Amino acid sequence: MNVTVAIQQLPHGQDLPLPGYETMLAAGMDLRAALDAPLTLAPGDRGLVPTGIAIALPEGYEAQVRPRSGLALRHGVTCLNSPGTIDADFRGEVKVILINLGQEPVTLERGDRIAQMVLAPVTRAVWERVEALDETPRGAGGFGSSGRR
Length: 149
Description:
Layout: E1 6-9, E2 29-32, E3 39-41, E4 46-56, E5 61-66, H1 69-75, E6 77-79, E7 84-86, E8 93-100, E9 106-108, E10 113-121
Antiparallel strand pairs: 1-4, 2-10, 3-9, 4-8, 5-7, 5-10, 6-8
């Protein structure tokens, strides 16, 4: 299924490729860093990384910003607020909150693939207030109550 999404390359992202799928069956499009200068994240540091794009999602869709597995495995760099949600009515620049959970500093360069973006349909809830909920075998048990390890 294809969805047409309007995208604007901002002045500081004009020379970067648009987000793209790296393989034929990839669910996520890679987002790139639109940095003016290298950004070094020391262990424990976090930073807001611009991508140089703004998008206009169609009504009924969201974009989820998620970590890239290679960055997480090799360097311990992942996304905070993950998955980050871009709502259909947001028109600002897509930015990624990265954190270095590794043990060494990591330097990001202009054009580095820093995260992935997945488009997803949105289902909106309509609340129905009730006096009691139906019973289930699990009941109110949570956080380890299922007995599974």
